[in-house]
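Summary: Need help interpreting a holo structure output

Steps to reproduce:
1. Submit the protein chain below together with the SMILES for pyridoxal-5'-phosphate.
2. Request a joint structure prediction with the ligand placed.
3. Inspect the structure token block that comes back.

Expected: a single structure record containing both the chain and the bound molecule.
Actual: see attached output.

Input attached:
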Amino acid sequence: MKPKQSIIHLPVYQPGKPVEEVKRELGLKDVIKLASNENPFGCSEQAKVAIQNEIASSSIYPDSFSAALTSAVAGHLGVERNQLIFGAGSDEVILMLARAYISPGDETIMADETFPQYKHNSEIEGAVIIEVPLKDGTHDLDAMLAKVTERTKIIWICNPNNPTGTIVRQDELIAFLRKVPSSVIVALDEAYYEFVTDAAYPDSVALIQQFNNVIVLRTFSKIYGLAALRVGYGVGHADLIHYVNQVREPFNTTRFGQAAAAAAIGDQIFMQSCKDRNSEGRSYLCEAFDRLSLPYFEPHGNFVLVDTGLPSKQVFDALLRKGIIARARWTYYPTHLRITVGSMEQNEKFIQALEEVLEEAAVLG
Ligand SMILES: *Cc1c(COP(=O)(O)O)cnc(C)c1O
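--- attached output ---
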């Protein structure tokens, strides 16, 4: 038995450590996970009711076309229903996009470092991966444009970028899109769209009316707090979406996910309160990092990539022993931690633990 050549070297995805595992391994009672950019405030109460209402229909397949959810999101965004595709998280929309558009030998361009799923799924399809280093933690659009050839199929832009949290601005993005050949798809991953408060952030859904080759990816996993239910979507020109739909599995989103997501997008009051509390927490963390003289990239999502000045693994392990799960894993950022903005209580506990870790290291150092 031999798997296909393109997957032999692929790593298995390594998720953030689960809370229960850390509690068990380290014998801790209280553990805070700030590793996976999950919503510390849970999800909308209306989404919970919607999930409960579906339990009685558990034996019935979900609606393959997610009709009710499609209407809810189309209404919310002001787009046509045939401009939307839903996936088991936006992870699956990334997978479907690669599956529909990439053939072996095609080229695909992305930042380095960025969200790993663009590379992962493109490699499975046999693509040639062109990685363009970030400039000051931000996408270098000119350098990415310079890599376009007649074999280029998809350019991926993660905005805000994971793990750095930086954004590409509306003016830069428009100038870029004007120069990208219309045959090349530009995938704008906006998993953290709802957290952005900077006025220079693009209005990407308006841009899809002008640029047929743009697909915007969003998710219910982050601000809407429905990560467990796996719902994300793509929005773009109907023709582009049509081909993605052709490779979609028949029942790729669940009854629970569809119902909860439709209720969640209807509860913008909950969304706004999460956005406000995130902004507050994000500012709190940045002020603390300033006070501790720790550099960080300007954060626009619900996480901050901060430079602790010490090997990431050392700080990660020391925080873990204090019951805080952070994320540390990046090739170019060996002394950085990515920390999710939590509730204020969690943020304060994290900063206190970090200060202790830094002091202990200074004493030993
Ligand atoms: C979390 C995340 C996603 C997708 O999450 P899903 O749960 O699959 O919707 C996509 N892109 C980025 C950059 C993310 O951080």
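--- end attachment ---

Reviewer comment: The pocket of pyridoxal-5'-phosphate is lined by residues 37, 89-91, 115, 158, 162, 189, 191, 219, 221-222, 227, 232 (CB under 6 Å). The chain has a mean pLDDT of 96.
Status: needs-info
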